[in-house]
Amino acid sequence: MPSQRKLSRRIAVIGGGISGLAAAHRLVELDPDCEVSLLERRGRVGGALWTIHEDGFQIEQGVDNFITTIPWGLNLCRRLGLEDDLVQTNPKYRQTFVVRGGRLYKLPDGFLMMAPTRMWPLVTTPILSPLGKLRCALEYFIPPSKETADESMAAFVRRRLGREAYERLVEPLLSAVYAADLEKLSVDATLSRFREMEREHGSLVRAMRKQMVAGRKGKGKAESGPRFSMFVTLRRGLSSLVDAIVERLGEGTVRSETVVERICPAGNGWQVWTSPSDYLAPGDSPGVVNASSPSGSTPGESPGAKYDGAKCELFDAVVLATPSYVAGSLLEPLDAELGRRLATIEHSSTAVLTFGFDESQIGHPLDGMGIVVPTAEKSPILACSLSSRKYVHRAPEGKTLLRVFVGGSRYPEAAEMPEEELCPRVFDELATLLGIEGQPIYSRVARWPRTMPQYHVGHKDLVAAIESGVEKLPGLELCGNAYHGVGIPDCIHGGEQAAERVLDARS
Ligand SMILES: Cc1cc2nc3c(=O)[nH]c(=O)nc-3n(C[C@H](O)[C@H](O)[C@H](O)COP(=O)(O)OP(=O)(O)OC[C@H]3O[C@@H](n4cnc5c(N)ncnc54)[C@H](O)[C@@H]3O)c2cc1C
User: Fold this and answer.
1) CATH placement of domain 10-49+240-345+456-506
2) Treating both helix axes as pointing N-terminal to C-terminal, what angle do 153-161 and 171-178 enclose, rounded to 10 degrees?
């Protein structure tokens, strides 16, 4: 009589960024018997979640923190037993600065992404001219658009709030988040709630005010305010989230330095060809160059062209959690149109420069969380996070840690500029803005080539077409930051959903 024992499922998760990690974790969480292989090209998993500790500083080389207004990041931390390690932003310094004419100005209080919740701070801000303020106030009376087609962020904001508010307030804020060209960035795929506000309430200002009133009434009834600040990080750094997942996955699950060269359906499963990675930089630090070390090259990723001699393994299902252009190269031989669609999602490159100082070196009081810089300033800096103001544990007493973002669609050359050119240029600019004296006591550059997918106008339709192509490939699921959100909670959600679909289809 044949054995009744259910055979364990073998599932390959390709790509060990947070999307792939979340997918692998969900698979073993829901089905402890399933045999998961997490295949990652680099020498480490986690992607842009990468903390280092040096000279007493805690340095986040990529991701700084994650948002708590959507639940998936917090939920995963809770399930991993990390809730007590969550750290809130410092309530003393929740202010953002905007640069105008080479000087720092406080962003008007209550200005949320692209809409004011309070009028008085907007009336009194020196960032806008009297005409710019008037145009902003007219938003209340501008009828909603009857168009239903997607629209660029720039067009939407100029239509609602006027050119000045767009250029001086919204463009710098959103460029810092999406590293994108706002003339191409889709409203529907990034901040669709603002279009919904326009449709439902006729005006963003009106919608925000209604939400504030409803919030105040709700707060009166609630026992306490929100448990977490809008953003949180982890006390031991965001790498501790990666470490906690890897620990839960168990030994042998993570196979780093393994590049997937080719995938192909075979019977009821999938063949996966792997070879040892060609993508290892000295010190297990691909893409990162220490300020004191020679520059390392950081090629964009694509599966290797050759798979002769690669190892072939059979899996019951595959979760593809690589960047979309890698997914495109892997799927193109199976469905040329699907491969082409995946390849059309552009990615921008960024670099993060981290500087440490003695507090006495800095003339500015640094009474905020960050600085954003409009394109009109023609600065190499996209944004600067006052890292140890935002989260005090990141610098020893008497020291300050600043993280500067460069590159993106606005200034792509900066992301690749040799360090000896980039560091002095950025530092000089920062020194002028913040009144810094002397040289930094610590510096480091982290490079992130082709890591920020660009959600251009029409992105939602493109993703729907990609997903219907993937549906025709049973046993394959797709997730990653290129599809339904670039933030960490969105990536976690995407990975977990992909894992659930795999298990549903196989049960
Ligand atoms: C500098 C920077 C700062 C950011 N800050 C924040 C922030 O503060 N908050 C926030 O919420 N989000 C932030 N983001 C966005 C967020 O970090 C990313 O969207 C997210 O980490 C993407 O995760 P992912 O797993 O989808 O992709 P990735 O991390 O890119 O993972 C894909 C993985 O696939 C691997 N891979 C590629 N090809 C192959 C192959 N052939 N075989 C095997 N493996 C392969 C890659 O090596 C990589 O590890 C930031 C991003 C950057 C770059």
Assistant:
1) 3.50.50.60
2) 160
Helices 336-343 and 459-471: crossing angle, nearest 10°? 150
Ligand 1 center from residue 439 Cα (angstroms): 32
What's the DSSP call for residue 362? Answer: B
Q: pLDDT per residue over 128-148, tens digit each?
A: 999 999 999 899 999 999 888
Its pTM stands at 0.92
Q: Please work out whether the CB of residue 17 comes within 6 Å of at least one atom of ligand 1.
A: yes
Same fold, 10-49+240-345+456-506 and 111-142+150-221: no
The answer as to CATH 1.20.272.10 being correct for domain 347-453 is: no
Q: Which CATH code for domain 111-142+150-221?
A: 1.10.3110.10
Q: Is 488 in the pocket of ligand 1 (CB under 6 A)?
A: yes
370 lines ligand 1 (CB under 6 A): no
Distance (Å) from CA 223 to ligand 1 centroid = 38
Q: Structural domain boundaries of the chain?
A: 10-49+240-345+456-506, 111-142+150-221, 347-453
Confirm or reject: Cβ of 322 under 6 Å from ligand 1.
yes
Q: Whose CA is nearest to atom 37 of ligand 1?
A: 322
408 DSSP assignment: T
User: What string of DSSP letters covers 106-129?
Assistant: EPPTTEETTEES-SHHHHH-SSS-
Closest ligand 1 atom to residue 452 Cα is: 53
* 359-400: pLDDT as tens digits: 999 999 999 999 999 999 999 999 999 999 999 999 999 999
**Which atom of ligand 1 has the smallest separation from the CA of 261?**
41
Sites in the chain below the pLDDT cut of 70: 1-7, 215-226, 278-308, 506
Handedness of CA 31, 32, 37, 40 (dihedral sign): positive
Q: Angle at Cα 119 formed by Cα 117 and Cα 123, nearest 5°?
A: 140
Interatomic CA distance for residues 176 and 110, integer angstroms? 18
